[in-house]
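Board notes, transcribed. Complex of a protein with iron/sulfur cluster.
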Amino acid sequence: MLDRLQRPLRDLRISVTDRCNLRCPYCMPREVFGEGFRFLAREELLSFEEITRVVTVMAASGVTKIRLTGGEPLLRRDLERLVEMLARVDGVSDLALTTNGLLLARNAARLRDAGLDRVTVSLDALDPAALRSMSDSPVSPERILEGIEAAGDAGLAPVKVNMVVRRGRNDHSVLDMAARFRHRPEIIRFIEFMDVGSTNGWHAAEVVPAGEILSTIEARWPLQPLAPAREGEVATRYRYRDGGGEIGLIHSVSAPFCGSCTRARLSADGQLFTCLFAHGGHDLRGVLRGGGGDLELERRLSEIWEARSDRYSAERSGESDPQPAPKVEMSYIGG
Ligand code: SAM
Ligand code: SF4
Ligand code: SF4
């Protein structure tokens, strides 16, 4: 199954909840996602059985990688039951989770036992004040570090650590973060602040380009480029020349990778999105709940994918501050 730009569908990111226990302003600003915000109701969420059906059909069409995300996926009750169900689907060879790490220490072993392969933990700073500013919440970096440690101990390795870099907020923490994960089994990845959604007040001036992050690190510890670990990998990889390990840079803004984007996203209420920056999704829950069989699901899926021509980041590169448009929020479709 190929889209209009000849890209196959290989990866699916599944948002299992639109709720979160943090309010990172670049993702879920408190002014928007506050008390009056209407999150999805229980019955609107896809059940684990429904998610597993979608994944089974997609795996038969070529999807091999699944990532559970959100919102904060560890807020979804009994998540390990979903992991167990997805780990058994034929064709799924890589089952991963992205989390803010707050609830990871107590869940890591259970998730591993259920069949989870890998975990990515978001941690934007080690300095408590910068972390508070990035998450708009009184979180302690130690608690997230404990989660990272527990995930490694449970064998969810190598743990990847995501740091979104925002100029003026946490860019002073880049070297500290790099130092913390040198000579460690974890792999840190520095992410450019992206203009996802319509509510995070994105400005080009707050993006620290990956090239600048790289120069900052390279000036301290010389680096050497590494080949991509696999086709379509989003991070550009480097290794420290002194043997300190590996880092990644995700340059979605400064050097978009739409040409090799093989990813779709499923929202917690069963809408399928073919691009992180899409204005709308395709309703799969209606097919699931309308009594449609797997054949109908499969037909719908190939219709959607074969019509896909998204390359938002590539198209917008060059513009600085794009016109505000009602793009869908990342916490809803899954980062
Ligand atoms: N709550 C989980 C977490 O924070 O890891 C999973 C969902 S979160 C939406 C997934 C990833 O998206 C996180 O690593 C987060 O830092 C990243 N993210 C969210 N908004 C972003 C933005 N505007 N630019 C770049 N990355 C962003
Ligand atoms: Fe929550 Fe993750 Fe978004 Fe932060 S980035 S608000 S932790 S969903
Ligand atoms: Fe894929 Fe859309 Fe991101 Fe381009 S902008 S890499 S098509 S999700």
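Residues 256-258, 261, 263, 275-277, 310-313 surround iron/sulfur cluster (ligand 3) (CB under 6 Å). The chain has one domain: 11-333.
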